[in-house]
């Protein structure tokens, strides 16, 4: 790889141990992917924030990085953690887990990372601009900013994103390059336009193509739709970038007339639905994967307003970021009559296994991860149909 004189000095340890460790990792990744050089980034978003997912080994790694003097050099945010920092007892979290989770958050904070802890940082205090190069590690968020905003990031891992945040640089390969952002397949979509239909569309496309860069026709997603679509395709497949005709900023740059076309309609959506639904009886209903937006919280509140929770045997969690929760106190008050509005956490990275065995969600992303990461049978339905369970 071609490194500048300054980058070589970092690699050689002349600017501190923390920066050296970061440079070694970024260069190693660059060599694997045959990057020619490094590129400056404007922000980073880090995964690996829940004690459930990184364990004691991850905790020690973060402690070592802090002791080596590592500090981020660009605005950097953090993915959801394993619990609400103030309401963890309501989530059945043990004091031992809580202590280590708080330590992880503290260590990230000591490196200069904003500890707002959300999978939708683009709805808060980390909003890239079109054309920005960034290093993001949350699969749904990086797909959203690649696609809906037109920033540029690869599907970074947690340590790689942290290293890039420290350096303010990442390896210049993959989706940072124009030639790798071209569509590879056209998707003709026939859906009803609900948020849940976008989740099933993403699941169906992920099942159909695995990876690649789909180009959508027939849909007009707004922010909530796009974040849901991004999350589903990233979980059901490995899609990190997509284009939507007439919507996303780069869609007009491409001629797709010679690409294969896949139709996604009722049959494919039903197959996606069937794959995600493995139970008709739940103990927990968890919404907010990715985190609920202000609009989604308002819509759910208006649906629930004036109703009563009749099924006391089923818990309900509403997951969002602390930034979003603080923006809609009246809607939050309505939701709290049915279950806690939890900040900076979600059902996937919380240690729900052993507490629950059957969980309901409106998210294809959660529907994929609940069985594998949380040992759950899943019910995946539209929010109104999920609420029928408790009303």
What does this protein structure show overall?
- The protein has 3 domains: 5-178, Aconitase, domain 3; 182-275, no CATH class; 277-387, 2-Layer Sandwich (Aconitase, domain 3).
- 40% of the residues lie in helices and 13% in strands.
- The longest helix has 17 residues, at 51-67.
- It has a 5-stranded parallel β-sheet.
- The protein has helices spanning 5-11, 17-32, 51-67, 95-110, 139-149, 158-167, 195-209, 223-236, 266-276, 294-304, 322-325, 329-335, 364-374, 383-387; strands spanning 38-40, 44-46, 76-78, 135-136, 169-171, 185-189, 214-217, 243-244, 261-264, 284-287, 315-320, 341-343, 358-361, 377-380.
- The chain is α/β, with parallel strands linked by helices and 391 residues long.
Question: Strands, helices and their partners?
Answer:
Layout: H1 5-11, H2 17-32, E1 38-40, E2 44-46, H3 51-67, E3 76-78, H4 95-110, E4 135-136, H5 139-149, H6 158-167, E5 169-171, E6 185-189, H7 195-209, E7 214-217, H8 223-236, E8 243-244, E9 261-264, H9 266-276, E10 284-287, H10 294-304, E11 315-320, H11 322-325, H12 329-335, E12 341-343, E13 358-361, H13 364-374, E14 377-380, H14 383-387
